[in-house]
Fold this protein.
Amino acid sequence: MKRKVIAVVAAVALAVVGTAALVAYVGAAEDRALAGESVVDVLVVSETIERGTPAADLDGFVTTERVPAKVRADDAVSDLEDLGNRVAAVDLLAGEQLVAGRFVAQTELAALGEVEVPDGLLQVTVAVAAERAVGARIEAGATVGIVSSFAEGGGFPDMTHFIKHKALVTAVQGDVVASDDEDPNQAPTENLLVTLALTAPEVERLVFTAEFGSIWLAFEPPDAPEGGTSVITKAEVFS
């Protein structure tokens, strides 16, 4: 029995030594292969990234690897922060280098095709006058803040308040003014039909406001602060 124990221990020890030697050999081989080469760090996709995925959500989908500078892809990314608030314009496959050119603003993604709606959200369309929708400069793919406003009635005073921050706009129908239009005085006079992706409770609040109050949409990029809001009445306006 004692001999068997000694044999097992010896076998384990040999395995550990062999593994360490193999790792050292592979590392040395890599160093030899890169000897004399200028190397750089790049981010490589380790798991498929779906079109529309925000750059801020890519942790866990990419790894940092050293590659010879000569095989570094043009516009390759080494830091996710360099991508800012952009999203993947196409599906990215495991093994490929992360390239900035494959990421676009959410609004640009809309121009490339249908805006992808996150799982679990509903889509609802409301009619909004141009002056209540940032002068009709809202585009599919943008995120907006939804402000609900009610006139005095039912025992309640006039009230205005945000009911949703950063709602995703999935479609806009009507005479939209291009965001790069050089004439700031040009604005449509007809209502826009704006489709938004919301949860079921948010849809209820939006529809109720559309039926009995009024809606304003504020362009609200992903990094816009949300704090400091409150229910506003005449008393708060003049306080």
